[in-house]
Amino acid sequence: MSTEDIITVRPQSKNHSKFLSLTGFCLVCICLLLNSFLWDQYKYQLMLLLFASFIVLLTGVLKLTEPETSYQLTRENFVFFHRNGKWQINWHEIVRIGQTTSIPHGYRVYLPYIGIKLVDLQHIADSISPRLANKLIHEQKELLILSAVNRDIELTEGLISFEPYTLNGKVYKGPVAAWLYRTEQLVGLYGYHLYLPESSFDRNLSDFLTLLKSCQSHSNIHQ
Asked: Which of 24, 40, 68, 211 is deepest in the core (most CB within 10 A)?
């Protein structure tokens, strides 16, 4: 990777966003038209169809609002883009990159996430926005649910804590503190600080993992 090289990754979740939006809009219009003629005879069926049409439309609109780029990789940095903000780390801040796994009943199960373990959370804690921190807490909820199902934690341990969090002598509050508590918990359960969902890649998980490790390796060579 040369100094000028920038690798951009477009999320798979953007696929079919325009199609879903247009389909949802057309279905809503058709439902409203049918309501004018058939409401008395098929009231409940039309309500259900209208609800489903709104779901399709909302799904398409949400996909459209997602960033065109989910990740940007350079020799020095690794940047994650989200509709609620972004985080950025240097390659030398990363200790380990790997696929997230769970071991229920002694059997290893591979999860649709790439995990990143950092040397220190200080840099990302100082730069992450409260809005993004809050969103990540909810998006990573399924990892905690899985741990509860596997009985690695109790259900009550999945509650969000908004108590102040102290890191390297600095006190964080609000959503950032809550995200730090959740991150600390996930490190204990899965061994990583950051979790990249497979839907945010433009290729399969194995290929994206290889790309990240290659970028980190090249960065270490040029340090």
From this structure: 24
